[in-house]
Amino acid sequence: MPTIETERLILRPHTLDDAKELQRLIGDRAIADTTTNIPHPYEDGMAEEWISRRQETFERGVSVQFAITHREQGFFMGGIGLMIDREHERAEVGYWIGKSYWNNGYCTEAAQAVLKYGFEVMRLNRIHTTHMTRNPASGRVMQKVNMKHEGTLRQHVEKWGKFEDMEAYGILRSEYAASND
Q1: Threshold 0.90, pTM exceeds
Q2: Strand order in the sheet with 126-132
């Protein structure tokens, strides 16, 4: 699995050494509250089980997942990845960052690197994602990496007994190339 270096980050494969910190950070209710795929509570053993499947999903071409780590100090702070649909040459990007690392631009930096990987290495045509309307910070990350708002999916998911609106964003390889000339 690949490793990507940015100015402040190293995006690398998860290891079982990440499990304890992954569980601690992702177990924060604030993280699960505005994501569709992170359970709460995040039980013992869940991190190890999830990490142990990453190589196999990469080899099958289903996903590529990166641990977001600090380049200088090496500490683990979150995750980002692509869920790949090879038939249509597209992927959905998803990310989360530990609450103590919010508002430092780490998600934006990681997202820029993953878009580059998706378009330049994987040769995808489209990368898309959604965020809950009540999580505008996630939308700002998408805007900063030049994704275009494509619409609102009204009451698209149910989270903890409440239907949530989702904002949809996407970027095409041609748009990515034009914005990085």
Answers
A1: yes
A2: 4-5, 9-12, 63-70, 76-85, 90-97, 126-132, 162-172, 148-159
Q: How many CB atoms lie within 10 A of CB 61?
A: 11
Which CATH number does the domain housing residue 28 bear? 3.40.630.30
Alpha carbons 125 and 88: distance in angstroms, whole number: 8
Q: What is the pLDDT of residue 180?
A: 87
3-state secondary structure of 6: coil
Task: Looking at the chain, list the stretches that DSSP marks H as alpha helix, in order from N- to C-terminal side.
Answer: 19-26, 29-33, 46-52, 54-59, 106-116, 136-144, 173-179
Per the structure, the count of domains in the chain is: 1
Sort residue 11 into left (φ over 0), alpha (ψ -120 to 50) or beta: beta
pLDDT, block means (10 residues), the chain with 181 residues: 97 97 96 92 94 94 97 97 97 97 97 98 98 96 97 96 97 95 78
Q: What is the reported pLDDT for 181? A: 78
**Residue-number span of the structural domain to which 67 is assigned:** 4-179
The Cα 181–Cα 178 span in angstroms is: 6
Quick one: DSSP state of residue 124? -
Minimal CA–CA distance to 106: which of 133, 142, 70? 70
